[in-house]
């Protein structure tokens, strides 16, 4: 395997990890002033990084083609293309925000599976952001408030350099995640709260079912959903749909109504999920997960048959609840399962996928894990 030293003729200053995320509930509401409840997972993207004394960026990956070799001053909207834009974009955003950052050599040695709906992009951005914070002594990584500044830089990298109009949920989960907790993120004021979430403590397991499906039109569809939600808020004369009621939505046309209904009902489901978790009633959140999936599939139309099959089969085999997680159009579902039913549920989902002629899904247990950190 190629090493950092072979590529760059020097040793790295250290290694940093940025985790992927699962969103427990609160889907497609982070660009709508809503509430979401993600957590960082054990699957991580690892970067080896060395600081440079000049302005040059040399970015390479062991698993991905492409990369970048150029000046930080050449980075901007649309440049560089490909995965390197996520890393270069973080440095660009930090510099735009007034932080004194310069060049780096960086090698991606491990990655959260791409297209799995577990936010490999945020994992990369956040691992790189923490490395840059450490190496240039920005002092942001040591506190939640500082990490929120890094969250903003990672989100700007994605919005302004890569050009994906995503919300900030994934970056917040990757940088602010904590073992045993889900992160309640209020995207209205960016406030956060750690909510206890430890399924294993009560004999439950949260499974990730990666369908391995990735649709190429996902980015366009994501943008279209976001535009519909903004249009619906405009039509109602509100800054966002956050405080709208179902009755308010009656004024919307038939195209916008279901989209807006998803936002309003999903925010309510997050509130109810948090209330149950705060009361230690984890096993009771299943119906809220199911209702979230139904809303995403029916009203928001971001699911695909493989995600629907994963959820319905998991439920029929004993899961307490199941839903797609992340942006949709492929990627992963989650299922909350009594630990003694994990084999039954996994086997049933595999069998259903085989019968339907789908690829064999990747199924694994997950739990809330630490946010981005330095490893060595
Ligand atoms: C993607 C986006 F990047 C997030 O910001 C969020 O909108 C999510 O889709 C849907 O909840 O992961």
From TrEMBL:
Residues 86-177 form the GHMP kinase N-terminal domain. Its EC number is 2.7.1.6. GO terms for molecular function: ATP binding; galactokinase activity; metal ion binding. The keyword Metal-binding applies. Keywords: ATP-binding, Carbohydrate metabolism, Cytoplasm, Galactose metabolism, Kinase, Magnesium, Metal-binding, Nucleotide-binding, Transferase. Residues 3-51 form the Galactokinase N-terminal domain. Gene3D superfamilies: 3.30.230.10, GHMP kinase, C-terminal domain. GO terms for cellular component: cytosol. Residues 275-354 form the GHMP kinase C-terminal domain. The keyword Cytoplasm applies. InterPro entries: Galactokinase (IPR000705), Galactokinase_CS (IPR019741), GalKase_N (IPR019539), GHMP_kinase_C_dom (IPR013750), GHMP_kinase_C_sf (IPR036554), GHMP_kinase_N_dom (IPR006204), GHMP_knse_ATP-bd_CS (IPR006203), Mevalonate/galactokinase (IPR006206). It holds the Pfam family GalKase_gal_bdg. GO terms for biological process: galactose metabolic process. Belongs to the GHMP kinase family. GalK subfamily. This is Galactokinase. It comes from Pseudonocardia hierapolitana.
């Amino acid at each position: 395997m190629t090493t950092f030293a072979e590529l760059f003729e020097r040793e790295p200053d250290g290694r940093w990890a940025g985790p992927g995320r699962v969103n427990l509930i609160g889907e497609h509401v982070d660009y709508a002033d809503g509430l979401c409840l993600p957590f960082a997972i054990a699957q991580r993207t690892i970067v080896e990084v060395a600081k440079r004394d000049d302005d040059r960026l040399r970015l390479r990956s062991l698993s991905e083609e492409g990369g970048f070799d150029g000046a930080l001053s050449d980075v901007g909207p649309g440049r560089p293309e490909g995965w390197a834009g996520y890393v270069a974009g973080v440095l660009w955003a930090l510099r735009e925000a007034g932080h004194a950052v310069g060049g780096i050599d960086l090698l991606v040695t491990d990655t959260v599976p791409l297209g799995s709906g577990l936010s490999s992009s945020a994992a990369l951005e956040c691992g790189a952001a923490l490395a840059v914070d450490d190496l240039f002594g920005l002092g942001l990584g040591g506190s939640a408030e500082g990490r929120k500044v890094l969250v903003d830089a990672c989100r700007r990298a994605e919005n302004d350099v890569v050009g994906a109009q995503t919300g900030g949920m994934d970056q917040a989960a990757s940088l602010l995640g904590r073992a045993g907790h889900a992160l309640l993120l209020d995207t209205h004021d960016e406030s956060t709260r750690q909510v206890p979430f430890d399924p294993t403590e009560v004999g439950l397991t949260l499974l990730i079912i990666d369908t391995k499906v990735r649709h190429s039109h996902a980015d366009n569809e994501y943008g279209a959903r976001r535009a519909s939600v903004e249009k619906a808020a405009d039509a109602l004369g509100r800054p966002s749909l956050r405080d709208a009621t179902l009755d308010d939505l009656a004024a919307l046309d038939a195209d916008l109504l279901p989209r807006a209904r998803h936002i309003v009902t999903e925010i309510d489901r997050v509130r109810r999920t948090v209330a149950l978790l705060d009361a230690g009633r984890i096993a009771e959140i299943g119906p809220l997960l199911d209702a979230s999936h139904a809303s995403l599939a029916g009203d928001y139309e971001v699911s695909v048959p493989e995600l629907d099959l994963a959820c319905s089969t998991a439920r029929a085999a004993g899961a307490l609840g199941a839903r797609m997680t992340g942006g949709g159009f492929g990627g992963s579902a989650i299922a909350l399962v009594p630990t003694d039913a994990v084999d039954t549920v996994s086997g049933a989902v595999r069998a259903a996928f085989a019968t339907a002629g789908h690829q064999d899904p990747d199924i694994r247990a997950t739990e809330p894990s630490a946010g981005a950190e330095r490893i060595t």
